[in-house]
Amino acid sequence: MKDLISLHDLSAEEVKSLLELGLKLKDENKKGIEHHILKGKTLGMIFTKSSTRTRVSFEVGMTQLGGYPLFLSSNDIQLGRGESIHDTAKVLERYLDGIMIRTFAHSDVVELAEEADIPVINALTDLLHPCQVLADLMTAYEHKGGLEGLKLAYVGDGNNMAHSLMYGCAKAGLDCAVATPAKYRCDAEVVKNAEADFAAAGRTLTLTEDPFEAVKDADIVYTDTWVSMGQESEKEEKIKVFGGYQVNDELFGAAKHDALFMHCLPAYRGFEVTESVIDGPRSVIFDEAENRLHAQKAVMAALMG
Ligand code: CP
Ligand code: NVA
C-alpha cells in the first residue's frame, strides 16, 4: 500500500488494521502517550478546495507524530497556473515524504500518485472521500462496539461521500443502502466496483430512490450536503429535487430506535437534515470530526512511518 486513493483499492484486512491503529492512537493520545514516528518528515498538503476539518486534522496529526505539515494552496503554487501534474510530482518528491491532496478531478489524484515516488493521500475529490469514511467507521465502532453486520443507510446526493461509504462498508463488513433521486444516482463504475466488493464480503448493497426503504432497520443514517463544492450554480435546482430526501424526525424515526445519525460536515440545517436530528441525542457528528485526526494519523503512520 503506497497511497490512499480509494478504499476499493485496499483489502478488508488493510481497512480493519487502519481502523485498529486509529483507535489505538486515539487511546494513547488521550493518555498523553506521544509517538514521534514521523520525526523529520514533511507532508505537503495541496488544497484546490476549501476545508476546515481536513486541513486542521492533517496539520495537527502530522505535528503530533513529530513531523511537519506544509500547506500548499493551489492559488500559490504553479500547479494553479498550469504546471503539469507530472512535473509537480517529480519536484515535490525531492522535498517531501508524502503528499495530501484535495481537488476536483479524481483522475488528477490518480495521476499524481502514479507519477510521485512518495505516498499520496486523497483528501477528497469529486468522486471519493476515503479519509472521512475511515473516521466514520471508527466512530460507528466506538458507539456500536463493532461493525460486522451493521446496516448503514445513506440518504441524499450520489456524491463522493456516498461512493466512499459504499466502499468502506463493504470492506468493514456492513450492509449498506443508498437512497438518491434518479437524477443524482451514484457513479455507475463505482456502483459496479462496490457491488463486487459487497459480493466478496457476503454483505448486501441496496440502491433505491425511496429513503424510507433505505433507512428500514438501519443502525446508522448518514447524509451529506445536496450541493457539494464546485456545484454552487446547481443549488436552486438541486434543492427542488432533494426535497423528499431530508433526514427529519419522521425519516430518522423509521430507522432502528437506537440508530446513530452521521454527517461528514459541513451541514446545512433545514436542508439535508433538520436541527432536531443533527443536534439530537443520537447525532455523533463531532465524534466523526474528531476521529478524522486519529484515523489520518493511522494512515500517515502506515504510509510514511
Ligand atoms: N468533512 C470534511 O472533509 O470537512 P472539510 O471540508 O472542512 O475538510
Ligand atoms: N460532498 C461534500 C463533502 C464535503 C466534505 C463536498 O464534496 O463538498
TrEMBL record:
Protein name from the UniProt record: Ornithine carbamoyltransferase
Pfam short name (any one): OTCace
Signal peptide: none
Principal EC category: transferase
Matches recorded under Gene3D superfamilies: Aspartate/ornithine carbamoyltransferase (3.40.50.1370)
E.C. no: 2.1.3.3
Annotated Aspartate/ornithine carbamoyltransferase Asp/Orn-binding domain residues: 148-302
Entry's localization field: Cytoplasm
Binding site for carbamoyl phosphate: S51, T52, R53, T54, Q78, R102, H129, P130, C131, Q132, C264, L265, R292
InterPro entries, alphabetized: Asp/Orn_carbamoyltranf_P-bd (IPR006132), Asp/Orn_carbamoylTrfase (IPR006130), Asp/Orn_carbamoylTrfase_sf (IPR036901), Asp_carbamoyltransf_Asp/Orn-bd (IPR006131), Orn/put_carbamltrans (IPR002292), OTCase_ArgI (IPR024904)
GO cellular component, one term: cytoplasm
Function comment: Reversibly catalyzes the transfer of the carbamoyl group from carbamoyl phosphate (CP) to the N(epsilon) atom of ornithine (ORN) to produce L-citrulline.
Pathway: Amino-acid biosynthesis; L-arginine biosynthesis; L-arginine from L-ornithine and carbamoyl phosphate: step 1/3
Swiss-Prot/TrEMBL keywords: Cytoplasm, Transferase
An individual GO BP term: L-arginine biosynthetic process via ornithine
Organism of origin: Candidatus Ornithomonoglobus intestinigallinarum
Family from the record: Belongs to the aspartate/ornithine carbamoyltransferase superfamily. OTCase family.
